[in-house]
Amino acid sequence: MEKKDEKIIKDLEAIVASTNSPEEAFKKIAAAYPSVSVEELKKNYEEEKKKAEAEFSKCSKSEDVENLSDDALEEIAGGSFGGWVKKNWPYLVLGAAAIGLTAGIIHKGFIARQNTAANAAGEYMGD
Question: What was the pLDDT predicted at 123?
């Protein structure tokens, strides 16, 4: 099972890397993995974004930050959450896809697999 998980993660990373926006990534992921819909990915993405925003807000209010790297200092000094999202949206999309695929596995009773005739027909039950 772990090898399948690793392959799915690599496939998702490749899909996201080939896109220029979350919306484009949602469409390509949903096309490759029919067990998850574009709408579900958008919902999961927004939930992950809210979690990230809460953490971002917590960190920006903290007074216990020490020994900052140049990148971290730049993010704190001049960064906003919107800027962070523009730079890090691929990670949020991957999180949303992982949630969606997990829900698809549990809900549909089969492993999310790239689009094949057996998978599209709901016949694939794993190797």
Answer: 47
Closest CA to 93 of 35, 27, 4, 34: 27
CA distance 101 to 112: 6
Residue 61's CB: how many other CB atoms inside 10 A? 7
Closest among 110, 115, 92, 84 to 25, alpha carbons compared = 92
pLDDT at 60 over 80: no
pTM over 0.70: no
DSSP string, 51-103: HHHHHHHHHHH-S---S--HHHHHHHHH--HHHHHHHHHHHHHHHHHHHHHHH
DSSP state of 114: S
Half-sphere exposure of 112 (CA within 13 A, CB side): 27
Residues in the chain: 127
The band of 124, judged by pLDDT with boundaries at 50, 70 and 90, is very low
